[in-house]
Amino acid sequence: MFLLMTLVLIRFTNGRVVYTIIEEEPPGIVLGNIYDQFNITRKHYLANIILTQITKNTFSKIYPNLVTLETKSGNLKLNSKIDREKICPSAKEQEECLLDMQIYLSSIDKPLTANLLVIDINDNPPYFLSKKYYIKVILFPIT
């Protein structure tokens, strides 16, 4: 039997909600509840969510259907698997893959702003600059 571990973290940074998810999570994972995180009265809203990639002060791509809001419950759910390398191809392993999220709800004047941070699971084979490396190992006898 396999145990599937899902990690979704929610943190607040500079007044913004940051949802953190590991790439390749299955669709349907609940990222969080916007009614709780943004302290909004629970009622049925019409919703639209826009996700954009943040790369060095420019928006390079828009992802309109990556997440869905269940307006009755307030649950923010993942619609499809996320491949970090496809969404943030220019981000190096050490750099964050951060998506800016604008959540538009009917009868609320301003959009709710949050971020979606995608963590790499290191699913790619290693890449080396040279095909051969020589390592010199010096052994000392134990005395």
Short summary of the structure?
The protein is mainly beta and 143 residues long. The protein has one domain: Immunoglobulin-like (Sandwich).
Would you write up a description of this structure?
With 143 residues, this protein is mostly beta strands. Helix content is 6%, strand content 40%. The chain has a single domain, classed as Sandwich (Immunoglobulin-like), CATH 2.60.40. The protein has helices at 34-37, 84-87, and strands at 8-13, 16-22, 30-33, 47-55, 58-63, 67-70, 75-78, 97-105, 112-119. The strands form 2 sheets. The protein has a 6-stranded mixed beta sheet, with no helix packed on it. Strands 3-7-6 form a 3-stranded antiparallel beta sheet. The longest helix is centred in the N-terminal third of the chain and has 4 residues, at 34-37. The chain is elongated.
Features:
143 residues; mainly beta; single chain; 2 helices; Cadherin_N; signal; 6% helix; Protocadherin beta-14-like; Cadherin-like_dom; Immunoglobulin-like
Overall geometric form: elongated
CATH-derived architecture: Sandwich
CATH C-level class is Mainly Beta
What profile does the largest beta sheet have?
A: 6 strands, mixed
Domain Cadherin: 14-128
Protein name: Protocadherin beta-14-like
GO biological process, one term: homophilic cell adhesion via plasma membrane adhesion molecules
Keywords: Calcium, Glycoprotein, Membrane, Signal, Transmembrane, Transmembrane helix
